[in-house]
Design a protein that fits this description.
- The complex is a heterodimer of chains A (about 475) and B (about 500).
- Chain A is α+β, with helices and mostly antiparallel strands.
- Chain A has three domains: about 5-295, no CATH class; about 305-415, no CATH class; about 425-485, Arc Repressor Mutant, subunit A (Orthogonal Bundle).
- In chain A, about 40% of the residues lie in helices and about 20% in strands.
- Chain A has 15 helices and 15 strands.
- Chain A has helices spanning about 55-65, 170-185, 225-245, 290-300, 305-315, 320-325, 330-340, 350-365, 375-390, 395-405, 410-420, 425-440, 440-450, 455-465, 470-485, and strands spanning about 5-15, 75, 80, 90-95, 105-110, 120-135, 140-145, 145-150, 160-165, 200-210, 220-225, 255-260, 265-270, 280, 290.
- In chain A, the strands form four sheets. An eight-stranded mixed β-sheet of chain A has the order 5-6-9-1-10-11-12-13. In chain A, strands 4-3-14 form a three-stranded antiparallel β-sheet, with no helix packed on it.
- Chain B folds into two domains: about 5-255 and about 390-485, Amidase signature (AS) domain (Amidase signature (AS) enzymes), CATH 3.90.1300; about 300-375, no CATH class.
- In chain B, about 35% of the residues lie in helices and about 10% in strands.
- Chain B contains 15 helices and eleven strands.
- In chain B, the strands form two sheets. Chain B has an eight-stranded mixed β-sheet with strand order 4-6-5-10-11-9-7-8, sandwiched between helices.
- The chains are: A alpha+beta (about 475), B alpha/beta (about 500).
Chain lengths: ~475, ~500
């Protein structure tokens, strides 16, 4: 990347809100139904039908506003965005224009630079606004030769469009922001975050400029549905814009699409083709009024937010910022950690290491996410408890963990059945050590003459003799003492 | 029987003097005879009507009748009615069979009323003469060379010609009151939000309001009891307690303060209309009312304001008629844009297209502030004028329309002349107030033909419907203009 160029990025993210019914009608919003089976009279815009606002969608917008420290408008207005398209049954989309429900907020992000040895850093991205709107339906091509079908199941699905300030200056920052937002909307339970199903769609505005210069002309990359594509698309787009400018061409405002096959962005329409949407307040809907009481009610149901949890993990539990960040990657992850930690309140680091290590590795291996974890945090805490009180060794614990993962059950029962309880009786360990020393006099002599490396040999023999059950720390102590003579 | 009031008809049905099936058949026969000349109905379905009548007779026999049970009525073709073709007067919906009932239709069905048919109207309720209907003009029963007014012209003609006992209309800028005036019947546009708009095909959502049209204020009150009420499917429907609109009909008018806006009596009103209105006001003085001179200084702006706001909303409301999911689609087209263009060009009539273009223009980037926003500001000023006026008076009176019914084609070439037909009614919609028109005399005889009906407009304060009906009913007890019927219908 040419370092004399500054990159400016802002995001518009469409999050599909997790209501059961549509934003202006009672039709279901479930994904994947047969075409048009979730299209009621309002969804297909029959003559005479009227929109009625779903309060669940508003409640979710309030949750988002509270979670980003934003101003929640006591009065906001739904407007009609007018344009013709077959998947837009009314000929207008009901959205919010100059008076959105959520005003300025902010989101703190952890950025992990993609290249070089630069260290992770925190940054705050300002959120300009978030507004409620309805989704359009879908055009279906190719089902019947020469005919385009229209599926209106998705028409009227509630969306919260979240618009950021152009505060990001690299693909890494843009991806970090998108990920943080993705975590947040799932965390506060307003969106399932399923990117394959289009529940979380990102539009990325990119421009470049020389430092100190006014903002360059931006191009908008539409509808990115994976973080990997987002990074690739931004990298390509930035390079393309720089090359254009350096070879004497101006950038024209345009909407572009990213092609994952070629890794390139390509212009879809230019500003000259831009619609005049003729926004005006929707006369079928009253202004949306949100009382302070309603906001308070929603606030009372809001969980502790990721950023607050991270601070608490660092300051109260002594974890590193990195660990805290990983453990708050999702609410399920944090819940798992905190529930398991209840079993070993003084061993936060061990608990964190086990989750980030064994648990995450198993989840990855099985292609699961934390919500699908086959063992509960309570079951898992049962293992940690037996590590902490020295009942089992680390290797014994791993065996218990694998058994629990595969077969379920209870840690203590597995320890008993498999005989994994480690020997911590110092008399028994001393007896084993005495036997070994007696049976290997030559090696003992070598050790005593300075061949320290043989220590491992003795540990191995002793472990074997104890059938792996000797408490390793205790065994080490006894061996060291007795070998010293 | 055809001249009976709704109360009298209800009593006759309950007394078994006549069955609903017999009464309905009477109307069906009369419609068959007179409608071909008047063209008041777009769609008739005698089988459905008679089935409803027989069901009503069962209720009547079981003693479960409500006031309107078994009474044959008609519905403006703007209301979706399950199983009925619902055209809104447009080629666009020529073959559209509604799969659901509008709130208003539901209410009449629940009340046990019989639906005789869907009445003719200006296309998408855009017009003041019924000349924009795709299904042909409606003739004024008083003189078939003249318009019935619009847009609820079919309803007005059907009620005046006794082709139904009463019927529904809708009023966006005068579409109940002006045709009521021109056809010599009574019509009420309620306060915005009193009658649910659910299932009523939208013209200009912030102005549209359904209301009753009938031969007397008493009949209107009975219909209001059925039509009005909160409906959660319309976000602009008002949550109020049910009220009996007939409760005050018989109150004396002593002490009633009638506001007379000087702007309504200044200029532009025909002298025959002016005479009839002045006689009516004199009658009110006799009934104990006092007159108050008031001013509505911004009302002169109501026509231009209306012709910004109503087309703006209409241009968006009518976007759904795109030929994709239902309604008219051009038989041939080359691509998507061509399909939209041809379907809409062929499916909409000239007046509808004119208003879509006006509306699209005033909402366009760069013009929105100058037109739409400015019009919204003046709309508030117009409403404030009324609020001021109601500090001094209880109701406001004036003419409903500047002239009596005009001849076909007389204003057809000049949209602005046509728009001025609603000069006295539009401010009421902009303010969201209730307004009504009742017959108060006849205009000058022309070429030896008898004079055409004149309507007196009564404008009430918000939710003043019961009081307005009282004011109208007392006048109708003292006069007989409302019971005159057009003669010589063949």
């Amino acid at each position: 990347m040419n370092t004399q160029w500054e990159i400016v990025i802002g995001l518009e993210v469409h999050t599909q809100l997790s209501t059961n019914s549509k934003i202006f009608s009672g039709a279901a919003t479930a994904y994947g139904a047969e075409p048009n089976t979730q299209a009621d009279a309002v969804s297909i815009a029959l003559p005479g039908v009227l929109p009625v606002l779903n309060r669940g969608a508003v409640e979710r917008a309030i949750r988002f506003g509270l979670a980003t420290g934003a101003h929640i408008a006591p009065r906001s207005v739904f407007a009609r965005k007018n344009y013709f398209y077959p998947d837009l049954p009314k000929g207008y989309q009901i959205s919010q224009f100059d008076l959105p429900v959520v005003g300025q907020g902010a989101l703190a992000i952890q950025v992990e630079p993609l290249s070089g040895n630069a260290k992770p850093y925190e940054k705050v991205v300002r959120i300009t606004r978030a507004h409620l709107e309805e989704d359009a339906g879908k055009s279906v091509h190719g089902e019947t030769q020469g005919v385009t079908g229209v599926d209106l199941n998705r028409a009227g699905t509630p969306l919260l469009e979240i618009v950021s300030e152009p505060d990001m200056s690299s693909a890494a920052e843009a991806v970090a922001y998108a990920k943080a937002l993705h975590t947040l909307v799932r965390w506060i339970g307003i969106c399932d975050g399923n990117m394959q199903e289009g529940s979380f769609r990102c539009d990325v505005n990119v421009s470049v400029r020389k430092p100190g210069q006014p903002l360059g002309t931006r191009r908008e990359i539409k509808n990115l549905n994976s973080f990997k594509f987002m990074q690739q698309a931004i990298d390509y787009e930035v390079q393309w814009q720089i090359e254009q400018i350096e070879s004497g061409h101006a950038i024209h405002q345009a909407t572009v699409l990213f092609n994952p096959e070629t890794g390139e962005t390509r212009a879809m329409r230019s500003k000259e083709d831009a619609h005049d949407y003729r926004y005006f307040p929707d006369p079928d809907l009253l202004p949306l009024e949100i009382s302070p009481q309603w906001i308070d009610e929603v606030r009372a149901t809001l969980p502790e937010l990721p950023h607050a949890k991270q601070s608490r993990y660092v300051n109260e539990l002594g974890l590193s910022a990195y660990d805290a960040c990983i453990l708050t990657a999702s609410r399920e992850m944090a819940d798992f950690f905190e529930t398991a930690l209840a079993a070993v309140p003084n061993d936060a680091k061990m608990c964190a290491n086990w989750i980030m290590g064994e648990v995450n590795a198993q989840l990855n291996r099985d292609g699961l996410d934390m919500a699908q974890c086959p063992i509960t945090a309570q079951q898992f805490g049962g293992i940690l408890k037996r590590i902490a009180d020295n009942t089992i060794s680390n290797s014994g614990a791993k065996e218990v963990f694998r058994t629990l993962w595969a077969e379920g059950g209870d840690a203590d029962a597995i320890i008993a059945t498999k005989g994994l309880k480690q020997v911590s009786d110092s008399g028994a360990i001393e007896a084993i050590v005495d036997e070994i020393i007696a049976a290997n006099a030559d090696k003992v002599a070598e050790y005593r003459s300075g061949k320290d490396k043989l220590f491992g040999f003795f540990v191995g023999l002793a472990m074997k003799a104890s059938k792996g059950k000797a408490n390793p720390a205790q065994l080490n102590d006894v061996l060291k003492r007795k070998l010293a003579g | 029987m055809l001249n009976s009031s709704l109360l009298q008809m209800g009593a006759a049905l309950r007394a078994k003097t006549i069955s609903s099936a017999e009464l309905t058949q009477l109307y069906i026969d009369r419609i068959a005879k007179l409608n071909p000349a008047l063209n008041a109905y777009i769609t008739l379905n005698p089988e459905i009507s008679l089935a409803q009548a027989r069901a009503a007779d069962v209720l009547l026999s079981a003693g479960k009748a409500q006031p309107l049970t078994g009474i044959p009525m008609a519905q403006k073709d703007i209301f979706c009615a399950r199983g009925w073709r619902t055209t809104c007067g447009s080629k666009m919906l020529e073959n559209f069979i509604a799969p659901y009932d509008a709130h208003v239709i539901e209410q009449f069905n629940k009340a046990g009323a019989v639906n005789l048919g869907k009445t003719n109207m200006d296309e998408f309720a855009m017009g003041s003469s019924n000349e924009t209907s795709h299904f042909g003009t409606v003739k004024n029963p008083w003189d078939t060379a003249r318009v019935p007014g619009g847009s609820s012209g079919g309803t007005a003609a059907a009620v005046a010609a006794r082709l139904c006992a009463a019927a529904t209309g809708t009023d966006t800028g005068g579409s109940i009151r002006q045709p009521a005036a021109l056809c010599g019947i009574s019509g009420l546009k309620p306060t915005y939000g009193v009658v649910s708009r659910y299932g009523m095909i939208a013209f200009a959502s912030s102005l549209d309001q359904a209301g009753p049209m009938a031969r007397s204020a008493e009949d209107l009150a009975l219909m209001m009891n059925v039509m009005a009420g909160f409906d959660e499917r319309d976000s602009t429907s008002l949550q109020r307690d049910k009220e009996d609109y007939a409760r005050d009909l018989n109150k004396p008018l002593n002490g009633l303060r009638i506001g007379l806006p000087k702007e309504f009596f200044a200029e532009g009103m025909g002298s025959d209309v002016s005479q009839a209105i002045e006689s009516a006001i004199a009658e009110y003085k006799k009934l104990g009312a006092t007159l108050v001179d008031i001013s509505l200084p911004n009302s002169k702006l109501s026509v231009p304001v209306y012709y910004v706001l109503a087309p703006a909303e209409a241009s968006s409301n009518l976007s759904r008629f795109d030929g994709v999911r239902y309604g008219y689609r051009a038989p041939e087209y080359t691509d998507l844009a061509d399909m939209y263009e041809k379907s809409r060009a062929q499916g909409f009539g000239a007046e509808v297209k004119r208003r879509i273009m006006i509306g699209t223009y005033v909402l366009s980037h760069g013009y929105y502030d100058a037109y739409y926003l400015q019009a919204q500001k003046i709309r508030r000023l117009i409403a404030q004028d009324f609020t001021e006026a109601y500090k001094q008076c209880d109701v406001i009176m004036g003419p409903t329309a500047p002239s009596t019914a005009f001849k076909f084609g007389e204003k057809g070439d000049d949209p602005v002349q046509m728009y001025l037909s609603d000069i006295y009614t539009i401010a009421v919609n902009l303010a969201g107030l209730p307004g009504m028109s009742i017959p108060c005399g006849f205009g000058a005889t022309v070429d030896g033909n008898p004079g055409m009906p004149v309507g007196l407009q009564i404008i009430g304060n918000y939710f003043g419907e019961a009081r307005m009906l009282n004011v109208a009913h007392q006048y109708q007890l003292a006069t007989d203009w409302h019971s005159r019927a057009p003669q010589g219908l063949q």
